[in-house]
């Protein structure tokens, strides 16, 4: 573990630096043997906040960090570097402070006699059960370098697909947010001033102008209450989403939503096929592979399908028969798995299915991105046009009547 210290050297001058040691006691002893009088010493990852407290809660390990870490470990294991040395090297070089802390803790556990998989399992927020079990299989087979390469490739594929889907949804969300903000500003600041002129003119007000003025009055008079209501509703919705019923409802909505539902179904099917292929290729039994896939598929509907499939396979059913019972699983996937079981090439079939659905996801995202921009432009134009027409036409009638 890395420690930062301030001390007075033998010449009486103040000095500061860092030292790598198993714990703080050993670090202090090492510095005292050099003739230093220590004034302060603390772990390098301990960052004080405004109140002098650890602000590590604001730090997190991203998927990209784990992908890079896995590739580094695969390279170092291929070079026959010891596990303890690998984790100490990577900890010392890690730029992410949260990851550095985890790696130092893992190196200490390994130095204490723990296995790599057991050490990783203590940090579930960074290393999933899928990751840990893959490493455990690599330890048992003696092929840790290949295992970490498998993991890096898998995480890279998963990160690429997931990131592309998220990035495709950011643009419409931003446009909608901007549109709502601009419209709210116009309805609460601009429209009230113009509406008073229209009403005072005594002319007949068109129905669409009355609608705009009514909405404007509601926002001006009850805006704070509406905002508080939206915040409370959002909070309650978030709380509901954390329950089992909420997770199931949101998972079902996600895969049944028009067009986007098809995109998400392909994403989950790609994840299922890729997980099973990666684990079976690493020597993990089918039962364990299905259990781990259920944990990482990230959709309650498909998670339940995988758990029920697991129970059926335990009872002696073939994977194709067990998974083919559910309408969420397309027939082509079931038929391909059946062919793989009959020919003994299930791993290659799953790999082919994974690549197929990944391409489908990428194509669907590209199509979505191409459609979003013109659709958004049309909708924004209609919204702004309606708002302007509702106030400009009455004003034009007033000026014409003068």
Describe this structure in words.
The chain is mainly alpha-helical and 402 residues long. It folds into three domains: 2-44; 63-153, Up-down Bundle (Receptor-associated Protein); 154-402, Receptor-associated Protein (Up-down Bundle), CATH 1.20.81.30. The protein is 74% helix and 5% strand. The protein has 15 helices and three strands. A three-stranded antiparallel sheet has the order 2-1-3, with helices on one face. Helix 9 crosses helix 10 and helix 14 (331-343) packs antiparallel against helix 15. The longest helix is centred in the middle third of the chain and has 57 residues, at 144-200. It starts with a strand and ends with a helix.
Short description, anyone?
The chain has 402 residues and is mainly alpha-helical. It is 74% helix and 5% strand.
Number of helices: 15
What's the CATH topology label of the largest domain? Answer: Receptor-associated Protein
| pLDDT < 50 runs, ≥5 residues | 47-58
Q: How many beta strands in the DSSP annotation?
A: 3
Give the tally of structural domains: 3
Taking the alpha carbons of the first and last residues, their distance comes to 84 Å
Determine the mean pLDDT. Answer: 83
- Please tell me what the overall shape is: flat
Taken as a percent bin, the fraction of beta residues is 5-15%
């Amino acid at each position: 573990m890395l420690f930062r210290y301030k001390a007075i050297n033998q010449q009486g001058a103040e000095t500061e630096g860092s030292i790598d040691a198993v714990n703080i006691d050993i670090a202090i002893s090492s510095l005292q043997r050099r003739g230093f009088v220590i004034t302060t010493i603390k772990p390098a990852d301990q960052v004080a906040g405004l109140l002098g407290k650890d602000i590590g809660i604001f730090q997190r390990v991203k998927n990209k960090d784990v992908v890079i870490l896995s590739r580094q470990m695969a390279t170092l294991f291929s070079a026959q570097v010891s596990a303890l040395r690998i984790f100490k090297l990577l900890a010392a070089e890690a730029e992410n402070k949260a990851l550095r802390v985890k790696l130092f803790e893992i190196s200490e556990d390994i130095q204490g006699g723990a296995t790599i998989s057991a050490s990783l399992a203590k940090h579930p927020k960074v290393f999933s059960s899928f990751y840990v079990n893959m490493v455990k299989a690599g330890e048992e087979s003696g092929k840790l370098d290949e295992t970490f390469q498998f993991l890096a490739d898998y995480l890279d594929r998963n990160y690429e697909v997931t990131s592309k889907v998220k990035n495709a949804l950011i643009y419409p969300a931003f446009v909608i947010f901007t549109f709502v903000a601009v419209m709210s500003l116009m309805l609460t600041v601009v429209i009230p001033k113009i509406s008073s002129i229209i009403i005072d003119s005594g002319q007949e007000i068109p129905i669409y102008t009355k609608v705009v003025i009514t909405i404007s009055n509601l926002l001006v008079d009850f805006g704070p209450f509406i905002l508080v209501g939206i915040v409370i509703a959002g909070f309650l919705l978030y709380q509901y989403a954390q329950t089992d019923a909420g997770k199931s409802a949101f998972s079902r909505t996600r895969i049944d939503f028009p067009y986007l539902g098809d995109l998400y179904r392909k994403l989950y099917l790609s994840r299922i096929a890729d997980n099973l292929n990666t684990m079976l290729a690493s020597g993990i039994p089918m039962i364990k592979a299905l259990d781990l896939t259920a944990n990482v598929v990230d959709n309650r509907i498909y998670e339940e399908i995988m758990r029920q499939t697991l129970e059926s396979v335990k009872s002696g059913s073939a994977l194709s028969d067990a998974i083919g019972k559910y309408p969420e699983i397309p027939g082509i996937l079931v038929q391909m798995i059946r062919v793989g079981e009959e020919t003994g090439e299930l791993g290659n079939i799953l790999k082919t299915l994974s690549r197929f659905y990944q391409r489908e996801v990428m194509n669907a995202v590209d199509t979505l991105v191409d459609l979003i921009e013109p659709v958004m432009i049309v909708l924004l134009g209609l919204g702004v046009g309606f708002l302007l027409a509702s106030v400009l036409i009455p004003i034009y009638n007033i000026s014409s009547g003068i």
